[in-house]
Design a protein that fits this description.
Layout lengths: L4 H17 L1 H15 L3 E6 L2 H17 L2 E6 L11 E7 L5 H9 L4 E6 L5 H6 L2 E3 L12 H21 L4 H16 L1 H14 L1 H6 L3 E5 L2 H16 L4 E5 H5 L11 E5 L8 H14 L3 E5 L9 E3 L9 H5 L1 H14 L4 H13 L8
Parallel strand pairs: 1-2, 1-3, 3-4, 4-5, 6-7, 6-8, 8-9, 9-10
Amino acid sequence: MALSMYHYIGEQQEVLRHILHERKSCTADFAAYFEENAPDRIYLIGSGTSLNGALAAAPFMENVLGIEVTAHAASLLPVIRGKHPLLVFISQGGNSTNTLAAIATLHGYDFVALTGTEECRVNEVCGRHVLMACGPEEAGPKTKGYVSTVMTLYLMALEAALLTGSISIQKYNGFIAALEHTVDALEKSIQIAEKWVEVNSSWLKTTIHYVLVGKHQAGVVAREGALKLVETVLTPATAYEFEEFLHGPIGLISESLGGIYFLPVRDDPDRDRMLALARYHAESSRRVCIISADEDVQGENVLQLPVTAPWYALPFIYILPCQLIGAKLPERIGVSDRGMQIFRQVDQRLNIKYAHKG
């Protein structure tokens, strides 16, 4: 019997610890390539959860490498610029046909694959690859694949930056310590988020539309959170960057609209404004959740995840509530595996995955 999404959520802490422990060996070839070829731009290319992981990792990679790093959908390829660009194609299963098509389109540039398995079509056509070391995930909607993508991209950047002297060993050790601290807190955060889902399941089960709002890194997490809800509970969910939500979409606020607000870190200048918006929404609807890592935010609709984490660690923690909604609610509303059934049917007709090509 295939393992459930809930099982894979429980594996996330162990998987991330393993990736951190094996970071030198997993990223050695990439770091050596980076030192020898000195890329001046990096393009991260993927779809779905892989793209969302890339979007979360890109700002951190820019920070430590000191070059422009951007993330793009495999079906919406950018113009490739720079004297020595590097393309990173991301696919956990390694068989997404649109990623394979993107590789074919951009043939001639330097590229590397980031995949969750050694034996896959993407690795065959790329040649050079990095293993994200998260193992298989057969439940459909990806959970450990998301956090593993983010972590592996972070570590690829850190090891390359350390080897090339872009960061000092002291700064490198500080980043690693912060990531290890976040992973150590993961089990407790999962328990708290799961309890919140149980307590609030009555309104979660009857919500027919969600908005997820965040800023900077929290806004990128909102995008993956919306995807998890759409994939699992089969309910429309839309992610908005905070300011973009203010400019028009706030007209959606009503009693029936569910809202999940990912507060940014404490020193963000818009944090209090976002909190005020979430509380305004809560005046109209009981279907509002405010996700915060700070003890100074209190209330019945607040999910407090007790972790002191820098901005780049937020994806590993803030994504948990949406993952757990996706793991726990479908059975209760009678749509268990319905999303995967639809995916399989469409896959047979459209060849979303390479394995089904004739």
